[in-house]
Amino acid sequence: MKRLSLICIITMTLVVLVGCGAKSPSQVVKSYFDAMQKGEQTQAISYLVDAIETQVGEQEPTADKELSAALLIYLSKLEATILSETVTDTTARVAVEVSGLNLSEIIIEIFFESLGDALNGSKLTDEYLNTKIIEKVNNGDIQTREGVIFLDKIENEWRIQPEEADFIALILGSIENK
Predict the structure, then answer these.
(1) Mind listing the pLDDT tens digit for each residue in 50-90?
(2) Mean pLDDT of the 144-155 span
(3) How far apart are CA 174 and CA 143, in angstroms?
(4) Which in 34, 55, 58, 155 has the greatest CB count within 10 A?
(5) Domains of the chain (ranges plus CATH)?
């Protein structure tokens, strides 16, 4: 009976210890994209390396509510699938497939459409540009792209390196995807 009690106590202790552990690099990446998709910017930023060095709450307010709404729609369309994970003691690489709009292409399309309209005599106002952005974000095609997200282990927590070119291309898309 003592053996059975001891085994139960050890098992329960291990379950509690494993369950309370820090997130794996893949879990951090998945949590980041989930927060972005839900529009939880403060939560998403907390998974980035820079979140440690800056005040998360001190973000400049976006002056235009329409652009903020377009950004939230854009982010809500981002979905990530973890493909693989490579971990060392202090660094990790998580290969992902991201589906979402391509903001780089949207900006280029708006630029050329606006240029054409301006050359035809149309006046380009903020309202005109906002309408174009919202239209493109609402009606844009979803693209799939693959890349690697790099993470560093800081104070026993995995943090995403947001300055890496792959990370930026995964979030914003790139012109080469077309």
Answers:
(1) 754 444 444 455 457 878 888 889 989 999 999 999 999 99
(2) 94
(3) 11
(4) 34
(5) 25-177 (3.10.450.50)
Which residue type is seen at 23?
K
| Residue pLDDT, tens place only, 82-120 | 999 999 999 999 999 999 999 999 999 999 999 998 898
Tokens of 158: 């995995």
